[in-house]
Amino acid sequence: MTPSLPTFWKNVITVLGGALGAQALPLLAAPLITRMCTPADMGAFSLWLAVVAVAAVGATLRMETAMILDHEAEQQRTCFGVVRYTATITAVLVTSLAVLAHLLDVPAVRQLSWPALLTVGVGTWLTANMQTLIAYATSHNAFGKAARAKIWGAGTIAAAQLLLLACGADALGLLAGQLIGVATGLLVARRLLDPPRAPLALTLGPDARAYLHRHRKFWQYTLPSNLLNSLVGQLPLILIGMRHGALAAGLFALTQRVLAAPISLLAASVLEVFKRQSVQEYQAVGHCKQAYRYTFKVLLLLGLLPSLTLLLFSPQLFAWVFGPAWREAGELAQILAPLYFLNFIASPLSYVFFVTGRQNVDMWWQITLFVMTLGVFVMPGSLHDNVLWYALGYSTLYLVYLHMSWQCSQNRLAAA
């Protein structure tokens, strides 16, 4: 049953309110945090967080997505049990691999301390279970409760990190604050949502195996695609940490966080509207070019002024807001501003590939992006050189992406 327009917008506003609160709190705390830690501390923490973000995608097998399809309590209980089992296995495996890689002096983990290596599995487990609880909330339209849990988690992360940094902790304080905050958000979500309880078992039972088989498309197809997408998002930070060290990774991490905020908030709200309009138009007339053209204009107008401001004044703004030590992050933001402007426009419009059934186009574009990112960051050169080539390559791919999505909206792009 299609929800009424007021209900639809009420849910969208509630979700966005939670996202706004969850992202605004860390951003508001950032000017204080950056004055209490060094870019190298931020870089070491961000590398740890990048590993956790990628590992958490694999830890769920994307089975939490099936939660939205199965509303029966027993089916959802089984799903919780499956995710808890796979998240536990993944946590142990990731921790063991991280320790082994450190002992073998693998460059990718050279910047991580022993506390970071030993807690990467804990962070993965907490994040995976939090994602599953949010999916459970979505399946029951409990958007308000999910939003409150996100805000609790984000607020606790910011408060714990500030407190620990004030007590003299460095990168370890950022890491511990993150774990405390995610654990708090998880506990609050469980208390508010009261999900079905699934015991942790040493092996998967018949019901769990049947559930995995019934929803095998999620871990056969959705999981590889989501893993690639997550890896592409974190790959620049990881490669910068390997090539240029924790200090450079810290500068890039702050740049990434600031530039990504408008995409996560404003573009996400436009996407929700575009989803509805594009599907309705496509079903009615066989294309969605009117919805595409209108959405493109809205995104262009929303993104133009912030992008121009960053392009012209980023070094001064970063030094003023975050402290003089972070001026170089503003220089990176200046290089990346045109790329994130294109990202702001292209990300919501990419939904047209799903509307028209051309998901394969998006997959091949993601693979090309992965290869390009890997190539530019292993090239010799300074941090600024690598970021510049990354921005040029990524921007070129986005222009191609926008052209293909426009063709799709007119139903002119040939299906595979």
UniProtKB/TrEMBL annotation:
Signal peptide: none annotated. It is found in: Cell membrane. It is a multi-pass membrane protein. Keywords: Cell membrane, Membrane, Transmembrane, Transmembrane helix. This is Lipopolysaccharide biosynthesis protein. The chain crosses the membrane at residues 45-61, 82-104, 116-137, 299-323, 335-356, 363-381, 387-404. Its main location: membrane. It comes from Massilia niabensis. It holds the Pfam family Polysacc_synt_3. Belongs to the polysaccharide synthase family. It comes from the Bacteria.
